[in-house]
Amino acid sequence: MKRLFWIGLGSGLGGSLRYLIDLLVAGVAGLPPVLATFFINITGSLLVGYLAGLWARQGVAQTQLDRWHFWVTGFCGGYTTFSIFSWQVLALVEAGEGTLAGAYAAGSLGIGLIAVYIGLSLAVRRQAVHSTQSEPPASKS
Question: What sections of the chain are H helices per DSSP?
C-alpha cells in the first residue's frame, strides 16, 4: 500500500505539472498544444534517462524502490503524454496535416531517444565526478 501511495503522489504531481505546462504553452503563450506535448515528452524522456542512469550502476536497492516508483512510475508516468501524443498525431493526419504529423511523430521519437541518452550520460558523468571526489587522496609512501 505504501508503494501505491508514492506512485499515486508522483503521478498526481507529474500530471499537474503537465497541465500547467499545457496552460502556459497553449493558453498564455498562444502556441500550438502539440508544442507543449512535445516539450513534455522530451523533458520526461530526459528525466527517465537521468534517473535510470543514476540507479543503473548500483541497481535500485530495496530501500530505494519507493523513490524509483515515485519518480519513474509515478511522476514520469503522470507527466509524459504518449497517449495524448498518439491522439494528436492521428488528429493531425485526419485534419490533412500529414507532413506536420510525420514531423511531430518522428521528432518526438528521435529527439526523445536522444534526450534519454543525454540524461543517462549526464547521470553517469555525475556519478563519475562524485566517485572521484569521494575517494581519499593517495598516501605518499
Answer: 2-22, 33-56, 65-68, 77-79, 82-94, 98-133
d(Cα 30, Cα 53) in Å, to the nearest integer? 36
CB atoms closer than 10 angstroms to residue 116: 20
Write the pLDDT tens digit of every residue in 48-102: 889 888 877 667 676 688 888 999 899 999 999 787 788 899 999 999 999 999 9
pTM higher than the cut 0.70: yes
Output the nine-digit C-alpha cell for 69. 516508483
CA dist., res. 122 & res. 72, Å (int): 17
Domain ranges of the chain: 2-133
> Nine-digit cell at 117?
541518452
**Integer Cα distance of 71 and 23 in angstroms:** 23
